[in-house]
Amino acid sequence: MRVKTQPPNATPSPEVLAGRIRDWATELGFDGVGITGFDLAEDVEHLHQWLREGRHGSMDYMARHTDLRADPARLQPEAIRCISVRMNYRTQSADAMQACLDDPDRAYVSRYALGRDYHKLMRGRLKQLARRLQEAAPEALSRPFVDSAPVLEKALGRDARLGWIGKHSLLLHRDAGSWFFLGEILTNVALPVDDDPPVKNLCGSCTACMEICPTQAITGPQQLDARRCIAYLTIEHKGSIPEGLRKPMGNRIFGCDDCQLVCPWNRYAQATREPDFAPRHGLDTARLVDLFAWSEDEFLSRTEGMPIRRTGYAGWRRNIAVALGNATASDESRQALRGALDDPSPLVREHVQWALQQLEAAD
Asked: b/e for 129-150, b at 16 or more Cβ within 10 A?
């Protein structure tokens, strides 16, 4: 009996391609990969409700293109599958992170932002993965995304069996916690979807993330009010920070990790294998007064290729001024703030004045 074999240049079967994609993803530094279709109706309704309640604050872009979020095939014509990947970014122990957070005179920068901008790094790796797919399947049409378009990445990651969405609204994996980035490739290749049962939500009755949030931004399970979230206030929000939220910000000058630090599942989080995510310029332990002394040129130079650049120099100074108002009432912090009373930015001057009032009240 003659056994049929594939011609040497034949396109591999979808099942073979899926296996190769997993191998290629591992080679490219990704720590998890899954494949899913698009069944996002409930997630889109959740988004619409969030928008109706105004919880997106000034992030008007979240209200645009919700039709694209509902139907990924409109972002990549003919797409029927999503290859979802995750990449770990934790570089320090929880104790080291907590020690910085507990020191009011040191700046706390969300740990995802301490190294190279993950958007560029992961997008480059996903492009390589998409090229390998097209080389193996010439008919493949693929487009990579890394938090760069209206894609419901957490929902797609959940459906690709990369975890469950926790009460803090982040994707969680029992063996990897939540210290990871997500990325996607939309493709027209009919890859077999993961048919394992959905990842079980293991949050149970735990409410640690909701209780720890400094500004009570997590108003219920998977209910985040961005208007109160420190990540929103220090990065997305470009105006004055509401006075009632300034004290709870503590020393958090770019983002916030409290809900991740307290999550029991992050006891199992794996350290990153990616050296480009290592902290730069000592920003994992930097003093507030030292960062406040950066000129705009220093800020632009030292944050080149980093997520921190997103806040802008005035936002950077605004955030540090608030943190200095929450820091130890020392002569050094007072002097640093007084030197900024004539800052060219009215936004910075407003927060400097508030900070000085806090230090005077502490005396």
From this structure: bbebbeebbeebbbbbbbeebb
β-bridge mates for residue 143, sequence order = 186
Binding-site positions for cob(II)alamin read 69, 147, 171, 182, 256-257
d(CA 307, CA 311): 8
Q: Are 162 and 34 in contact (CB under 8 A)?
A: yes
* pLDDT tens digits along 207-256: 999 999 999 999 999 999 999 999 999 999 999 999 999 999 999 999 99
The residues facing 35 across adjacent strands are 83
Global pTM exceeds 0.90: yes
Residue pair 153/38 in contact by the 8 Å Cβ criterion: no
**Comparing C-alpha atoms, which of 255, 320, 257 is closest to residue 286?**
320
Q: Is 147 a catalytic residue?
A: yes
pLDDT in tens, 273-304: 999 999 999 999 999 999 999 999 999 999 99
CA distance 139 to 293: 55
Q: Which of 103, 105, 147, 343 is catalytic?
A: 147
Tokens encoding 286: 């930097």
